[in-house]
Structure formats: structure tokens, C-alpha cells
Queue: 3 jobs
Job 1
Amino acid sequence: RTRVTAPPLETDLRTVEVDATIDGDANARFDVSETFRGAGAALWRTQLESIPSANLESAFDEGYVSRILPGAHMTSLRISGREELDQPLVLHYEFEVEDIGHENHGRRMLPAFVPTQLTNAFARLASREIEQVISPTLALDVMIHVHVPAGAEVSSLPDTEAELGGPHDATARYATARSDDGFTLERHVRIPRMRVRPTEYDAFAGF
């Protein structure tokens, strides 16, 4: 029997860096860089090959950016690493959202930025009676910087730091910090290739 060693999770690491600026009228500008490695980069290259150059920006805006946040409209797009197969593929794009979030008792409530949606991706069922195979893996790092208007108060944020552990060394770490003009959010998720037994499913779904 031949045993093949799985590559490190970071082989397919996706990193997302977001810089968001919100003005006094609740209009927001986003500057985003997404870096894909390994299988993620290969998948994006394949998808991009099928889109004519003349339609690329409109297709990316309508098919990708508009799903990130309600009302998002892309204003620029740059892609690097399309031809360099041994390099990461980087999507660098900017978009705007008018009147972001909603008012609640005089406070501006912001939507989730770059949600990980782990439950939708890996644990959609309430329970399982057969083993679940988790593949492909997930390695995701997200860093979000949010700049609020001068004089605005950031009244509430998620927990300062939290770390969750799931079956078979699955981990998720979240961190939040205030800054001079807003706040930062971090997420670091690692889900290896695994087989989840029915007795482990509740712990995995809760993770």
C-alpha cells in the first residue's frame, strides 16, 4: 500500500486584506486584495480564461463583487499572476457602497465583512448518519481595517479574541482591536482534509 502525505494547508492559503473607509453620510469605499495560492489560484485562472477581456470588469462586478455586500459597485480591478503559474494569483479591486448598513436607535449597524460562512460550506445538515468527507481543505486569513468618520464612536465590537477548535485539528481564530480612527478584524481558519464520523458531527457543526 502506498501512503501519500498531504501537503501543508498553507499550500492553498487564501489571504484577504480589506481597507474600508466610511464617511459621514454612511457611504463606504473598499480597497481589497485577495491572494490565492495552489488549487485556488488554478481555479481562478481557469475561470478567467473563459471570460472575454472586454467583459471581464462587468462580469467580475456582477458575478463576484455584488455578492460581497448589498449595493456594492466595483470601481477598479487589477489582476496579477494570471500567466505566472508558479506564483500566487492576486485580485486587487475597489468598490463602493452607498448608505452601508442600517440605522438602529441612532446607531449605524454595519454588515459582516467577508463572512466565512463555514456552516454553509461544511455543515448544512442538522445531523448525519453516515461519515462526511471534508475535501478540499480550507486555509483562510482575513485582515480588515475599518476607518470611521472623525468624531464617530465605535460603540460595540465582537469579542476581543476567540479561538475555536474542532475535530481533527480544525481551528478558527478571531481577533478584534480598536484603532485611532476605527477598528480591525482578523480571522484565521484552518480546516484540514478529514473524515467526520456521525458522533463527531455535532462538534464539527458547532465549530
Job 2
Amino acid sequence: PYWPWIKLYSLDLKRLRWKNLQGDKPEDIEERTDRVDSLRYRLVMPFVVQKLELSDKLRIDMVCQVTLELVFPYKPVFELNGNFIAPLQNSARQVLKPVVSAYDYGEFLVLPTGPTSDFTARVIKEINNENGDVSEGVIQTTGFKVVDFEVVSYDLSSEDKESQTAAQAEKISELKGRGRIADAKAEEQAQIHLANGDKSRIIAILSGA
């Protein structure tokens, strides 16, 4: 008769958290274990989704933060044994892949991803699979419902950073080469003008002008 106020179970739940309040990078995240005995346990958890491909084939590593509410205890208690991080990341990745692939890197840089943005609303809706088959939603895969989502930071994946650096270096070299060509052409034109000037002066002298 006292359900859900009585403690029906307890669980050692593996989760991720920020090492400090100013954290916003993958290296600022650490794993810890919480003892959970609440039927409506809530937690705020950061996690990383790596190598999300954009429309220009560049890939980004995205640091996200979700607010989760436990709504289906059976899953994390009896099936996952408290290890729900990987299923959550997999679900987030499947949702984020088609969303971010609609933008190139330049477009994504200026895309609103705040708590009231269309981007965030879409991610929450799709990760919980509110309009689809509930068996595919994060509730069924982890036992948690996503009640809030935030993009904390993102950056090019390490391999793409290297390729971008190489591409930029090649572009700079190309521009420098063009500059040298332009300088050479300008010098050639100057010599031509000088020669034409000398020729005019010679003609003027010979004609007694």
C-alpha cells in the first residue's frame, strides 16, 4: 500500500559525470558508481558520441549532456546490471547521425543547439522514440527516459583535424605559389612598360622631338 514511497530495490549504477563544474571536453568526464534506490531516480550525465559524419564528410566528436529519469527499473536492474552507458550512447548515436548529416561543418557551427532549439526538441523526441515503435526507444534499451538534452561542445575528430591541417597547409602553399606567380607577372609587366617607355624616348630623340 505504500508503493512507490517504499524502497523496493537498490542498484549500483555505473554513470558518467564531470570531474569539475567547468568541464566541457571528453577528458573532463569520469565514471563513477551510484547507489540507487529510488523509483524515479534522476541524474544529469555527460557522454561523448564520436565521429558523427557531416554532409561534407568531415566528422565531429560531440560532448552531450542528458537529464535522465528512471521509468522502467526492470531493464537496468535485472538486464543491464547497472551498465546502461553503452546502450545510451548507441541510442544517441543512431538519433544524431541522420540529424547532423544534414549540415556541413560551416552550417553546423552556426546551428542553434540550445535547450529551446528545434535541434534539441528533435533529438529528445527521436531518442525517446515518442512517435514510433517504443521497442526502439531509449526507454526500452536503458530503462531511462531523456527529459533534457544539451550539446555541450563539439570538435573535429582527430583524423579530420589532421586532414584539415594538411588541407589548410596545401591551400596556403598554393596561395603563396599564386602570389609568387603574380609577383613574377607584375615584374614582367613592369619590365615591358619600362622597355616601352625607353623605346618611346628613343623614338622621340631620333625624331628630334
Job 3
Amino acid sequence: EDLVAAVRLAEALAAADSASANGAPRVAASRTTLAELLLAHRRFPALREVRKAQFAATPPGIPRGGIAADIGRLSRELGDADGAREWYEQALTDDPKGREPYAALAELAAERGDVAAHVQMLQRRASVEEDPAARASARVQAAELLLSAIEDVEAARVEALAATQEGDPPSSEEQVPPDAWKVLGRAQVQAGDLDQAARNLEEWWRRVE
């Protein structure tokens, strides 16, 4: 009952403030208070609607991208996978470098068995990721899927090779996963390039010893 009363009060404040030309800051504060209250009580359907209102009232940019990602997270919590995908894509429109949307969209693709979409999301993340270690990791994951699930040997070779060249300096042992050379070697075995495969598999083994 206390929660219901508080929600109604916050909604009434927002409605009253929105009627005033100078009410925008108070409306925003009321919505923030309401969102915090709903989150504390795990009222996710109502919280999602409040966050949608906050999104609509926020100009394009990184802050709005964060709200969209939050709505995507809430949609996943509510079992709305399609809605989650739409909101995470919106988050990337507002903040193309946001990490959470890429990771969530890759997970959603994996959950529905869409390997091509999973790979695409990893590649999209790698294309905008500024951290060399994270970029290399995304490339290795994409290469593994291309090789093992999609069976596109050349695409896997290209992606794995790109991963081995990441880092500062390039091929940094601190930033590039050893599996980059393992996947590259396996792709070269399948392509019939056994000499290069042997060299890269030896490099993988040296790095994991």
C-alpha cells in the first residue's frame, strides 16, 4: 500500500509539473524518484514504462543510449527478447561504443541459435572497440564461430589473423589471447597451408606454456 501511494504521488507530481512550462526539471526529478522506487521493489513492467518516458524526454546522445540499454535489460528480465533487441540496437544508435549492448545482442543471438548474427555483433563490436585487449577477444570469438559453426575457413582465417595483430605493440602477449594463433593455425590446416599452420600452432603453444 505504501508503494502504491508513493507511485501515485510521484505520478501526480509529474502530471502537475508537465502542465507547467517551467516544469521539465521537476518532471525529470519525479520520474527519477519513481524509477528508483520501482527498481527497489522490482516492479519491472512499470519501471520499463517510466524509463521509456525518460528516453522520450532525453535528447539523442550517450545518456539516452544508457537509458535505452537499461530498457533492453528490463525487457530481457521480462522475457521480451524482441523488445530487448530493439532497445539495445537503439542504445547503439545513441552510443555506438557502448559495450553492454554489443554483449547483450551477441548473447541474445546465441540464445536463439543465430550464429551469423552472433558473429556479426562480435565484428561490430571489434570495429568500434578502443581497448586492444577487448577488440582482440571479440575477434577471436568471431573467428572461432566462423571456423567451427559456420565453417567459413577463409573468413575465420582473416578474423584470427587480425586478432594476432592487435595490441600495442602488435601481438602483445598481455593483450592478445593465445587462442588467436590456435584458431588461425586450425583455419590454415583446413585451407591446406600446413607450413603456416605449424608456425602458428607452435606460437600458440609457446604462449600457453
